[in-house]
Amino acid sequence: MPTCRACGDRAEQFLDLGRQPLSDAFLRPEEVATEFTYDLTVTCCQGCGMVQLGSEVPRERMFHSEYPFRTASSHRMTQHFRAVADRLVAHSSTADPFVVEVGCNDGTMLRRLAETGVRHLGVDASADAVRDATAAGVQAQCAFFELETARRIAAEHGRADVVYAANTMCHIPYLDSVLAGAAALLTDDGVLVFEDPSWEDVFRLASFDQIYDEHFYLFSATSVSALALRHGFRLVDVEHLDVHGGELRYTLARSGAREPGPAPAAQVARERALGLTDPDVLAGFAERVAAKRTALLDLLRSTRAQGRSVAGYAATAKSATVLNYCGIGPDLIPCVYDTTPEKQGRLTPGTHIPVLPFPDSPDDLPDTFVLFAWNHTAEVLDKESAFRADGGRWIRYVPDVEEV
Ligand SMILES: [Zn+2]
Fold first, then answer.
1. How many CB atoms lie within 10 A of CB 339?
2. How many folded domains does the chain comprise?
3. Which residues crowd ion ligand 1, with CB under 5 Å?
4. Residue 307 above 60 pLDDT?
């Protein structure tokens, strides 16, 4: 029986997404023979309600120097993080706040602080990302954030008023060490703020493509409240964010340091009403996921049977789960178009669909696109309005499998 990586209690498996590759491991053709795969299962802790993967991929396999994702590649996320930076400074009551970002990536958020002269430090496990951040004028260092790292930062720079992490905490199986690090680094009145894909949103949308190697945890206010309490913190605020397919931003303060607002209790009550830790409800979720697989395969096969050509739109990390779980290879989707030069000429992980640059001529576009970047549906459909005007169709699978 698996145990909860967060609290050690019993964790029940409720979803099996089969053998999966690393979601960001776009392959050169010669790498196919040695491709790494693992069993992607999902469990829910009976004690603290934490939803998590059933097995852990070694972190060095995922967050290495060549980790390809860059925050600044998305205009929408750049705007999001500029607003975050302003909010984080507002959190602090001190005149000269010190903000530490865990998983700072290319420094998109911290750049805003650097521009306004706010003391800051980014920590990231990817040497390349840290180099990009430093080049952008951001203070950053290459490390995994854990207790020893936090103690070193506190000794070198003083204690932090805010420790912030976006789309990073859910990547880290060893949360105990991160929480202990935050406790060692923060001032008495300091806050730990983090935002990650929310289990409620994944549950509501059956967006099972949010489940992949890098997303080890799918947090909820329920599980984060329990996590906070075990480490001398309290969840004092939670807010919903309409980014990355639906996220929650959690604000933790040391127990007794700040009064919780009304939002955490309200969110916990919503999660309880939905039954987000109830074994019967979780079994129902697994059935909805299986039904989506059937519906998506049926739609792709009927589209091909009508003689329509099909291509994938955007070689996203999260498309790996859908393609591999459904068993969709080049026979159903012959290629995936993506603007990222590093991915072009490579093969999608596990299913080995060629990734190509978008064709120069609209005449060479397929009849139907599968929208892997469904969380950017409005932006993409707006950008590609001519494609639809010319009779092009979109297939998406979140919230439902459908042609749009
Ligand atoms: Zn637990």
1. 11
2. 2
3. 4, 6-7, 9, 45, 47-48, 50
4. yes
